[in-house]
Amino acid sequence: MMRMRPSGSDDGSSRGSAEEAAAGAREVGGEWEMRPGGMLVQRRGWDPRAPPPEMRLRISCGAARFEVSVCSLATFRELKKILTAETGLQPAEQRLFYKGKERGDGEFLDVCGVKNRSKVVLTEDPTSLERRYVEMRKNARIQSAQRAVSAVSMEVDKLADQVTTIEKSITERNKVAEIQITTLIELLMRQAVKLDSIHTEGDASSQKNLQAKRVQKCVETLDLLKTRNGRLKPAVVTTKWETFDPPTATTHWEYFD
């Protein structure tokens, strides 16, 4: 009497053999193909020197829709590198989903069932998004500080010109009203207070320090000029009046009867 093998064990062994054969086929780079009966045969017309075929994938990234070309035997990591050129997102900042499931970097596209014209969803990693937001806020603060320092710099330029004018006048021994010097010092100190209130980072900090030194130098110069100006005697203006004799008026009277 012949005994038949249980169908379950036979199917299980056949299934396992098919999976092993499929894995072996991948290892040899696609030289083999699986027939419907589970038989592994060499692919007809296969050229090992021929490059693997490419396929077009439809990428959905938020409201953006675009397509990319990728090798059919590529991994999702390699796909991310291609998407970096399209989106500006680094591979570590990307998350790829296919058929509602996030795919790992080491997974192969064809193994996951990705085919030509398949749709892949791209999202930005939440951690990366948060870092980008923090970086944007930081850049906004830096730009705001740079604008504030630039505004103070323009005011210091105007006040420095006035300091130069006063210095030239005192050097020529022309006394200047003391109120002009004290007012100019007060205006410079106001700019120094503005600089202190500006929170700066990076290049803006060096610009802030530069303007602070300019203000300090102008104030020190005015203090010296104030002392020199106090030693000058005010110029005495003497006005010489020129006198004129009144003209002699000769009146000829005409008489009428």
In short:
This protein has five helices and seven strands, in the order αββββαβββααα. By secondary structure, the chain is an alpha+beta fold.
Tell me what you see in this structure:
The chain is α+β, with helices and mostly antiparallel strands and 257 residues long. Helix content is 49%, strand content 14%. The chain is built from five helices and seven strands, in the order H-E-E-E-E-H-E-E-E-H-H-H. It has helices at 7-27, 76-87, 126-171, 178-196, 203-231, and strands at residues 32-34, 40-42, 54-61, 64-71, 94-98, 101-102, 119-124. The strands form two sheets. Strands 4-3-7-5-6 form a five-stranded mixed beta sheet. Strands 1-2 form a two-stranded antiparallel sheet. A hairpin with a 5-residue loop joins strand 1 and strand 2 (40-42). Helix 3 runs antiparallel to helix 4 (178-196), helix 3 (126-171) packs parallel to helix 5 and helix 4 runs antiparallel to helix 5. It starts with 6 loop residues before the first helix and ends in a 26-residue tail after the last helix. Residues 1-15 and 24-29 have low confidence and may be disordered.
